Structure formats: structure tokens, C-alpha cells
Amino acid sequence: MENEEKLEQIKVASLDEILGKKFPVLDDGFVRVVDYMGTDESIVQAARVSYGKGTKKVTEDRGLIRYLLRNRHTTPFEMCEIKLHVRVPMDAWRQWIRHRTANVNEYSTRYSLAIDSSQRTSDSEWRMQSKDNKQGSEGFFPVEIGGKLTEREQEFQNFAREIYQERLNLGVAREQARKDLPLSTYTEAYWKIDLHNLLNFLALRMDAHAQFEIRSYATTIGNEIVSRWCPVAWEAFKDYRMNSMELTSMEVEVMKKMLAGKQEETLAAAEKFGWLRKVDGKLAGNRERIEFEEKLTRLGLVAPWK
Ligand SMILES: Cc1cc2nc3c(=O)[nH]c(=O)nc-3n(C[C@H](O)[C@H](O)[C@H](O)COP(=O)(O)OP(=O)(O)OC[C@H]3O[C@@H](n4cnc5c(N)ncnc54)[C@H](O)[C@@H]3O)c2cc1C
């Protein structure tokens, strides 16, 4: 057919260079790219089907990708897919697997022996429970205490492994012998996801509120892999999502008064939203207020009630 458009498979030289290369994460984990489909160009190619070739001059490729991401036009980003091979401790994997929009094949400890490796915590890496955030941590234990925790961790992991091995030696089925292996045991999986949902994963898991362990994986995937695979989309993601900030209507109201220098009105608005409730003379914990204070800190501002 004369007018048929010639197509070639899209290749990304910078990603081909690292295909199969293991990027180390934690003490014995890794992430590596097994396969991929598409790149920035594919996002543009798909978007132009909906917008028509007429828009080509107005919106150059980079501008178009940035416009699409800024305005949450998601489907063109779903035209890119990536398949990763990951090695992750089971506690982090338990969080990871909650992202339902990926296709997964995990190493089977019914079928094979459990991977003989558990994630270890060095003596300087033991985190203390956060006081404000029940889900989080803040600060580290001194190494004298950390050293003891590490020693006990090692003892426990060795003991759990010993019992597992003992059961296998006796002929206990692998599917049952594994039941007391700790969550620190590494598992491996093939994980395939499209760019739109991968960016959602990265926004949630690179965020400071995500647990350090899964954050380490997400950061490696973002900085080492997506940055090479779809550099323009990656840059737009950082500009418009990762490093951007959303303000709620309450925050806008308080901030307007704050920036206008209206101290009393600012406090009155915060009071109206229940942010300044006190218990025993001290400001009570209030998640919305704390989140707002974090945003102000990012902007180099301080709330007047502080
Ligand atoms: C910091 C943090 C703390 C968390 N704490 C907890 C916790 O305490 N307990 C807990 O159980 N989970 C917790 N989670 C997990 C969280 O609630 C999500 O399950 C997880 O992050 C997956 O996000 P997702 O649904 O956006 O991703 P995906 O499953 O990949 O879905 C992507 C998007 O697809 C859409 N989608 C997918 N499936 C459906 C569906 N069935 N119906 C409608 N829309 C769908 C949604 O728009 C969704 O945002 C936490 C996550 C984070 C990041």
C-alpha cells in the first residue's frame, strides 16, 4: 500500500545500555530492567492520534508531554510499559504488591527453596518510632544500642533459617516449612507496569512518608531507570507532581491571610478549621495542621501559631 506509514520499533539507547544491569538496593536487593516498550516519543505518538497532526506545530514534543502530565491526561503514558526484575525483602514487598495495576510473577517458596538471604540492618540504621506520625520513624538509635539490635537480628535470622532447614531435612513440605521465615527474607519477582501507573507508584513510594525500605527501591527505579527510559516525562513528573505542592481550600484561606500580614485573621481561620485545639495547654496533634506546617517549611515560611 502506497500511503502506509512506515514504523520501526522504538528503541531507547540509554536504557538498552543498562538492560539486565542490577542496581543494588538495601543490603542484598536489586532492581533491573528486563524489557520495555515505548519511550517519550510513544506518549507523543499516542496523544497525536487524539489531537490530530494539526497540533504538531503548536505543541512541540516536550511541551506536549509536559502539558499532558500537568493536566492529568493519563492514557498516553499508558502506552509505555516496563518489565523489572526485583529482589525485595518480604515486608517491603507486602507494600509493593498493593499496587494492583502491575502484572506480577513472584518466586514461589512452595515450589523452590526460600532465598537464603534476609535483609540486615546495620548498627547505625535502627530508626526510632516517630512521636507525631504513628506510621513513621524519626532519628536513629545510637550505635551502641544499634549494635545490640543488629546482633539480636542476626541471631534471630540464623535461628529461623536453621528451623526452616531442619523442617526441610525432615521432609516437611516447602509450602509449610516456610511459615516461620521472617519478613526480612528476600523474595524476587518480575513486575510489569505502564508508565502512568509506575509514576503513581513512584509518587507514593518516593514520598518522604513512605517507608525507607520501599522508598529506596522507588528512588532507584525513578532516578536510575525512568530517567533514562522517558527523560522528558520524568522531568515533567518531578516538576508537576513529585516536587510540586497542592493546597487545600482551607490552606489557601489561611495562607492568603498570612501573606497579607493579617495575624489575627490567620489565627481565627486556623481556629475555625479546628487546627488550634489545645490539650493541657499545648497544641493538640492535628494532621491537617501538621501537613500545612510542612508545606510552609518547604516554602521557607513559619506558621504564626508556632
Ligand atoms: C505512605 C503510605 C501508607 C499506607 N498505609 C496503608 C495502610 O495503613 N493500610 C493499607 O491497607 N494500605 C496502606 N497503604 C496502601 C495504599 O492504600 C494503596 O493501596 C497503595 O498505595 C496502592 O495505591 P494505588 O491504589 O493508587 O495503586 P494501584 O493499585 O496501582 O492503582 C492505581 C490506581 O488505579 C485505580 N484503581 C486500581 N484498582 C482499582 C479498583 N479496584 N477500583 C477503583 N480504582 C482502582 C485507582 O485510581 C488507583 O489510584 C499505604 C500507602 C502509602 C503510600
Which outline best applies?
Answer: flat
Count the domains: 3
Q: Give the terminus-to-terminus CA distance.
A: 72 Å
| Assembly state of the chains shown | single chain
The helix/strand class is: alpha+beta
In total, the number of strands is 9
Level-2 CATH architecture of the largest domain: 2-Layer Sandwich
What is CATH's topology name of the largest domain?
Answer: Gyrase A, domain 2
Q: What's the helix-strand series?
A: HEEHHEHEEEHHEHHHHHEEH
**Widest β-sheet, arrangement of strands:** 1-2-3-7-4
**Name of the CATH class of the largest domain:** Alpha Beta
How large a portion of the residues is in β-strands, by DSSP E?
Answer: 5-15%
Largest β sheet strand count, sense and barrel closure:
5 strands, antiparallel
Radius of gyration: 25 Å
Task: Please report the number of helical segments.
Answer: 12
List the ligand species.
flavin-adenine dinucleotide
* Whole-number mean pLDDT: 94
> Helical content, roughly?
40-55%
Low-pLDDT regions: none
